[in-house]
């Protein structure tokens, strides 16, 4: 039997945190996780403190870690707690590179830099895809339907953002029924998670199919709205949804452009109409996609692009090689703002009532 040198390993843990990250003391763990009821009573903090100053008491059966000596602020308890988010991958998932980019395609609609559309367009132009599944305007104003586009020009008009759920995965399955097998799908994290389940589950359609291939283009997403609630909110503010030309969420504001100009509200004013499903969602940047697009971190008319997989990298490089996107690496300050908003989204569900 090999006896572990626990002291030596905890010293290495301490050294790694010191060299690589910001370190947080027990007080922060207590304030954010223990006192809020987010703690899952696992004992990781208690058992990894190198100076053994965390002790758990049992109060009415509840395991409560407490400081019982002098904390040396080594950061281990906070970093190792399964409920804290300290590494970039906890917040934005795995990635290869992060850029800001802009489409050079003429015409059509775009929300930010038009990159989501440009990526799809480049794939269709090069014959890499049979079709792309995107959201587009249906018969009811601002209520999206899915669209199956088979030509580069066919996707141009589907640019822009609908701030309501859109059933693009249904569109993906319809594209298969229509005989397409190499697809790109653009969608929010919840859409892309549906596809990822179909890929990863032993009984999932995409796992069982040998021939289907999907490029998953994710969109950053803080929340979407209940359609009826959004319509009513606009009406209460004197705007008919039929008259809206553009909606945008950026910089904590919701901005609507209509025939009477631009009107904006702090995003918090719309909390009551957020889709209920979104309060369970903690993924801002669509971690399960091949490549994600959003506006946080980039200035107006540019898209922040997170390249995550080899498939996503190939798609980005193809669009760049066709000259339909220009790009540069996103600087650290901008990446930090993506991390900050990701943390805000991921921890907002901590505010839910503790279940016990
Ligand atoms: C509900 C929602 C909330 C968002 N919230 C944020 C946010 O808080 N912060 C942030 O940085 N970015 C957010 N985004 C992403 C942002 O609005 C842009 O989609 C992203 O920056 C890409 O811009 P683009 O100009 O490159 O895309 P474009 O080239 O304009 O293409 C946009 C693509 O999104 C598709 N699309 C539009 N609406 C939907 C929908 N409801 N469901 C699925 N696909 C859709 C379109 O079909 C098109 O393919 C959100 C997107 C959605 C859909
Ligand atoms: S010494 Fe380190 S592990 Fe122990 S309580 Fe302080 S920060 Fe946490
Ligand atoms: S590591 Fe986190 S979740 Fe586990 S007992 Fe400590 S505070 Fe609670
Ligand atoms: S917040 Fe989550 S659940 Fe809601 S639309 Fe965005 S990705 Fe989907």
How is the topology of this model organized?
Elements: H1 6-20, H2 26-34, H3 44-48, E1 54-59, E2 62-67, H4 76-80, H5 88-92, E3 97-103, H6 115-125, E4 131-137, E5 144-149, H7 168-177, E6 182-188, H8 189-200, H9 205-208, E7 213-219, H10 227-236, E8 244-250, E9 253-258, E10 261-266, E11 291-294, E12 303-307, H11 310-321, E13 325-329, H12 332-348
Parallel strand pairs: 4-6, 6-7, 7-11
Antiparallel strand pairs: 1-2, 3-12, 3-13, 4-5, 8-9, 9-10, 11-12
Helix pairs in contact: 6-11
This protein binds flavin-adenine dinucleotide and iron/sulfur cluster (SF4) (3 copies).
Flavin-adenine dinucleotide (FAD) binds at residues 110-117, 134-136, 144, 158-164, 166, 168, 186-188, 191, 219-222, 224, 249, 293-296, 303.
Describe this entry's structure for a reader.
With 356 residues, this protein is of the alpha+beta class. Helix content is 32%, strand content 22%. It is built from twelve helices and 13 strands. The strands form three sheets. It has an eight-stranded mixed beta sheet, with helices on both faces. Strands 8-9-10 form a three-stranded antiparallel beta sheet, with no helix packed on it. Strands 1-2 form a two-stranded antiparallel ribbon. Strand 9 and strand 10 (261-266) form a beta hairpin. The radius of gyration is 23 Å and the shape is globular. It starts with 5 loop residues before the first helix and ends in an 8-residue tail after the last helix. The relative contact order is 0.14. The structure holds flavin-adenine dinucleotide and iron/sulfur cluster (3 copies).
* Mean pLDDT level: 95
Please count the beta strands (DSSP E, at least 2 residues each).
13
Oligomer: single chain
Largest sheet: 8 strands, mixed
Which ligands, by name, code or SMILES, are bound? flavin-adenine dinucleotide, iron/sulfur cluster
Question: What is the C-alpha radius of gyration, as a whole number of Å?
Answer: 23 Å
Structural class: alpha+beta
Helix fraction? 25-40%
If you consult CATH, what is the topology of the largest domain? Aspartate Aminotransferase, domain 2
CATH domain class of the largest domain: Alpha Beta
CATH architecture tag of the largest domain: 3-Layer(aba) Sandwich
């Amino acid at each position: 039997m090999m006896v572990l040198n626990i002291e030596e390993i905890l010293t290495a843990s301490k050294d790694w945190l010191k060299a690589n990250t910001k370190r947080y003391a027990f007080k922060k763990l207590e304030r954010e996780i223990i006192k809020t009821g987010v703690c899952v009573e696992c004992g990781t903090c208690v058992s990894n403190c190198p100076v053994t100053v965390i002790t758990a008491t049992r109060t009415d059966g509840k395991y409560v870690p407490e400081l019982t000596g002098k904390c040396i602020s080594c950061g281990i308890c906070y970093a190792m707690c399964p409920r804290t988010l300290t590494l970039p991958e906890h917040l934005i998932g795995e990635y290869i590179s992060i850029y800001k980019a802009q489409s050079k395609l003429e015409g059509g609609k775009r929300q930010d830099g038009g990159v989501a559309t440009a990526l799809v367009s480049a794939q269709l132009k090069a014959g890499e895809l049979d079709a792309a599944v995107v959201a587009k305007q249906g018969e009811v104003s601002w209520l999206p339907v899915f669209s199956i586009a088979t030509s580069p020009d066919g996707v141009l008009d589907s640019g822009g953002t609908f701030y309501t759920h859109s059933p693009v995965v249904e569109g993906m399955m319809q594209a298969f029924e229509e005989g397409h097998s190499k697809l790109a799908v653009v969608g929010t994290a919840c859409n892309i998670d549906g596809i990822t389940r179909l890929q990863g589950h032993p009984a999932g359609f995409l796992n069982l199919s040998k021939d289907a291939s999907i490029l998953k283009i994710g969109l950053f997403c803080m929340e979407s709205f209940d359609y009826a609630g959004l319509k009513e909110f606009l009406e209460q503010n004197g705007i008919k949804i039929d008259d809206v030309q553009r909606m945008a969420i950026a910089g904590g504001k919701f901005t609507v452009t209509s025939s009477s100009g631009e009107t904006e509200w702090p995003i918090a004013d719309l909390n009551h109409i957020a889709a209920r499903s979104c309060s369970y969602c903690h993924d801002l940047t669509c971690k399960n996609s091949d490549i994600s697009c959003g506006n946080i971190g980039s200035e107006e008319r540019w898209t922040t692009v997170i390249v995550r997989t080899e498939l996503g990298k190939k798609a980005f490089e193809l669009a760049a090689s066709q000259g339909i996107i220009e790009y540069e690496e996103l600087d650290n300050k901008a990446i930090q703002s993506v991390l900050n908003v990701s943390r805000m989204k991921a921890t907002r569900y901590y505010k839910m009532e503790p279940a016990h």
